[in-house]
Fold these 4 entries.
Entry 1:
Amino acid sequence: MPDDFVADPDGVPAEGQLSPSEGQLSDEDGLSEEEREERARGLPPLREVAEIRKPSTLGGVIYLCVLAGAMAGVGIAATGAWRTGVSWLAAALIGAAVARVILPDDNAGMLRVRRKALDAAILTGAGVALLILAASIPNQPG
């Protein structure tokens, strides 16, 4: 140990003082030269990049179609034809409900959140509510 190293009886360095091995990396740490240099400069280690995967179930594909329909509906509604856009959104939700009822649980993918009956009821209720609202709100003068 260096002469200027001060530790308590348990061998813990005094406050504000580095232990002799702290900040030093050995060749036995399993890091590449580049990783050692990054760690010495104080940079965090690089993370693995997640690969983009295709849906593994039919429900995953249907979920992406529902998402595309819902986004189209929001886009249509945002550009001015709000009744048409809300109807597209409602149709996407009702389509998701139908798919959730038809598909078995193992193949439902991201459509499966809760029990089948509850998923279908929530999706159907939201879709029907949007259709009723789009049909019942009167046109505004102007």
Entry 2:
Amino acid sequence: MASLQQQIGSRIKELRQLKGYTQAELAELVDLSTNYVGYLERGERTVSLQVLERLAHTLGVEVSTLFLFHERGGERASKPPNRKAQILTKLAMFLQHTETEDLRFLFKLAKRLTRSS
């Protein structure tokens, strides 16, 4: 199983790619070196809370989103997530700033759609 450091790094990489940023672009936006972003993504460095906050802000997610790891077969994934996981991540990012009442409506709609399948 991958270490927490590696899992956070994989998650940073996944979210960076979903946003369409290169490592160099993300590094510039967050005021880090490109090498350091690479170290973080590979789990070779421990990230500080301040850097996590800057990364989350730049990636347009809550800090807690950086800790949402995808699981496969009871183990946390160290490989890139499958297509379904990527879509779920995009959906979560899209809905993050939606009003609570609208989220409730969408949740009820999703429940109905999955029951009719």
Entry 3:
Amino acid sequence: MAQTPNIRTFQPADAATVRDLFSHGLLDFAMGFEEPMREYIRHSLADDLADISASYFKEPGGHFWVAEIDGQIKGIVGIQRRTREEAELRRMSVAADSRRHGIGGKLLETAEAFCWEKGYQRIRLTTVSLLQSAIALYRKHGYQQAGEERYGQVMGLHFVKRLTDHRC
């Protein structure tokens, strides 16, 4: 039986582990698209993941969580404010040895509850078509596909959940 993860707020000491988990999580699903995925990872590591505290906590309405089991970080997710009504779910990832044990769902529920408390009306996110298990999780939690666009060789899928339609 899987252990229940401890979902807690990111601490600066978590930064290297978070970046590593994010990088490996995406490469696990690259399946022939390794180079475009590495480029995306490089961009992400230089963008918001370069300074998670500044990117997710400096502005009101943002947050970043880690999921721990036995003191080891096994999952991550962040929320960034886009408008007064809309938040963006970002950087959702679960360690390979901990997938399919409910960690992603717990992280998603935590992020949604936070958004509900902050008064957001919508959560949006973008994922790629390679991440079929993530897409299934988002759909299970009421996210609707709102568009798609090509990112080089990979198709990006945009999803939205209206919090006014779903009580978290």
Entry 4:
Amino acid sequence: MATDEWLVISLRLGMAVFVGALIGLNRDLHRKPAGVRTHALVALGTALMVIVVMPPGVDDSHRYDALSRVIQGVLTGIGFLGAGVILRNPNKQHISGLTTAATIWVTSLLGIACGMGLYLPVLIALLFGSLVLLFGGRLERAFRPRTPKGAQGQGQDGPNDLSES
């Protein structure tokens, strides 16, 4: 393997870790169970899977079918990891962890894109994802109907409280 291929692989894996860590930092700052390490490792692992199937400097034209199977496997497996952070409290009719599960899923896709060397789509998706994480909760709360604090049988934000910061 040539030196330039090592650099390309290092750049792709490093970008995946960086992107995953940024998303994980948001989750850590909101005291969620999956943080910097989890998100960085998810992105790193998915980027590595892509690089193993489609290494830089090798003719890729016959490997797209294999890449498609890798992506399908990643999305299935990540679904189980995301399901592990979703919690349901039937007493309060409250579900938590949905946003963290979604960030794990998006992080895996960003890792795949990093592994393919698609840096511009990664940066654009990271920008949009960050905007959703930073402002989405505030936007939801601004439009959510208010319920009295003493209302029984409801979560803190109403009967269909499915949100998470």
